[in-house]
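Researcher: Go.
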Amino acid sequence: MPASPTGDLIGRSLHDPAYIDAVEAFDAHLRLERGASEHTRRAYVGDVCRLLAAFEDPDGEGLPLSDIEPGNLREWVLTMSRSGASPATTARRIASVRRFFGQCLRSGRIDQDPSTRLRTPKKPSRLPTVLQQEHAARVLDGADGRIDPARAGGPSVPSDRGGPAESPDPTTRAVGLRDTAVLELLYATGLRVSELVGLDLDDVDGTASLVTVLGKGGKVRRVPFGAPAARAVDAWCSAGRPALAREDSGAALFLGVRGARLDVRQVRRVVNTATDAVAGTPHLSPHGLRHSAATHMVENGADIRQVQEYLGHAALSSTQIYTHVSLGRLAAVYDRAHPRA
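Model: Structure:
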């Protein structure tokens, strides 16, 4: 059986057999017990390997895990700070190391956890970049013009490379229908881009207007979508996808021009192209559409816990960033409703 990407990473980064064994056990714990994705596991394992490699001598012999002390870890954090690591990067690496040593303690590799007193640097609060509601409507109306050209003033259909085509051939038209469905479904459901590209045909219930999503940690949720997204997905599945599908396309909902499952990079290009085409809109990523969808729901009165479920956030604290956008709306409600306003 070929080595996994995380296994390759461990083998390239570490030499001490005890370190390799401990990190491989940690990786297995993440995969089997926590249901972590390959991407998440690679991030955690990479952070831990970076730490442990610093404790190996030139001959590849590492400081025993049981001899690593809080002072060693504080020095590691200080070194990161001096090297210019951002607070967000430092906080993520500390979280990885804490999880690793916690697993080592539970498995009996160490008797005391040296990471318990590590202090996480405070990350500066950064509000997400979002579309204004009117800009979102213009972006999506322009995309819908690929289904109904009258809505966009003509049949301009961008290709995978973002260039327009005057008279689209079947492949180019299929790509246009796909991109419309991608944009509408991203905004309608607030999916993460990884969740979107992972969708299969059976995950979309067009009758009930629901999409079944496999989210972080292997958690499944069902998210509703509205009529514009339903029209776009139906048009893609009936008139677009058949033009791109190949024998080995499988059940993937969204396909690239060669018939393979659409990837994250292609979706990012679709969103960049669509938002850049509308004057006054920020340069937006797929995650920006997710932010925008959640923001607009809060602005229009959605309960924050409903938005938490909609986004698939495990903790309410992850969702509360969206409450910043409702401050203006709250002030307006206050002026209208409070007797002493």
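Model: The radius of gyration is 24 Å.
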